[in-house]
Amino acid sequence: MTGGGTGKQYAGGLIGNNYAGSISNCYAMGEVIGYNKVGGLVGRHDGEIISSSYATGSVKGQSSVGGLVGENEEGAISHSHATGEVTGTGGYVGGLVGQNSEGAISNSYATGNVTGERDSVGGLVGSNSEGSISSSYATGNVAGIGSTNSFYIGGLVGYNLGDISNSYATGEVTGTGDNVGGLVGCHDEETISNSYATGSVTGQGNNVGGLVGSNDTGAGAGMIGNIINSVALNPSVSGSSNVGKVAGLDNGTIQNCFAANTMQLLGSSSGTSENGTEEEVSKIVINNTLFPSPWILEQGFYPRLQGST
Fold first, then answer.
1. What is the number of alpha carbons within 13 Å of residue 265 lying toward its C-beta?
2. What is the full DSSP assignment across 188-254?
3. How many angstroms separate the CA atoms of 305 and 296, rounded?
4. CB 193, CB 219: distance < 8 Å
5. pLDDT in tens, 72-129
6. Digit-coded pLDDT (tens) for 30-45
7. Rounded to a whole number, what is the largest CA-CA distance in the chain?
8. Minimal CA–CA distance to 58: which of 93, 103, 99?
9. Cα–Cα dist 41/29, whole Å
10. Cα–Cα distance list, 139 to 122, 151, 183, 241, 255 (Å)
11. CA 243, 246, 248: angle at the middle one, nearest 5?
12. How do beta strands 109-110 and 97-101 pair?
């Protein structure tokens, strides 16, 4: 099925508000324009699963804007993708999903460039709140361009409060505010594992990192951000202060993380910045401790996921 659409709330190329329904083997190709909860395929997805589906049109809105789904509430998205450019004038803007709340995203990807003027802007997901992302990736450039309140900008996820595993981002990331990262802008709780970023990162504010801008402590007692077996392969990272190869600001835990020894850092670091273990890229990309199955490793190439193109 092909489609496109315009609307204020719940605007989608196929469905505006999908409540407790499943979607499989569907697609939309038209441009979608709306205000809140705007998606290339579905504006708002609540529960059940979206599988083997895609959207190719550009998506424009204010908040909760995604290339495939604007807001994913406790739903599953698998083996799906979006290729259109995504633009949001508010917060929660993502290449695949704008806002992922307690949802599970797996084996999915986004390739469109993403631009947001407020907080939580990501190449795959704008905000991941108590959700999971696995075996997924984003290749589009990500830009937070607002003159004020443009923070939490990441190549894969803007603001993360959930688990990310076996995922990567390759796009360039730029932000005018704080917390800008090649993979995640701000990681507050749960765990990032076996993941990497390759795009250059440029932030005009504080807390800028090749992998994450800020690896912080969450709101709950004993909750911290954990990053393990992950890699920053960016050519350069620049910011105002708290600039690091792996994390610009680290108040959580970072274990067995590596960074390209050729990466250039521009800006001041601090005692809470984390550079990881510096190593040659040619050795990192074939390290099967960092990249076990479902990764495919080949000398001279970045790790790729099984089934990806």
1. 25
2. -SEEEES-EE-S-EEESSEEEESSEEEE-B-SSTT-BEEEES-EE--SEEEEEEEEESSEEEESSEE
3. 6
4. no
5. 999 999 999 999 999 999 999 999 999 999 999 999 999 999 999 999 999 999 999 9
6. 999 999 999 999 999 9
7. 54
8. 93
9. 9
10. 11, 20, 11, 27, 26
11. 30
12. unpaired
Contact in structure between 256 and 220 (CB atoms under 8 Å): no
Tokens found for residue 124: 């795959």
192, 226 Cβ separation under 8 angstroms = yes
With CA atoms as reference, report the closest residue to 172 among 163, 164, 181: 181
Q: How far is CA 268 from CA 223, 233, 272, in A?
A: 28, 20, 11
Contact present, 302 and 139 (Cβ < 8 Å):
no
Q: In whole angstroms, what is the distance from residue 281 CA to residue 276 CA?
A: 14
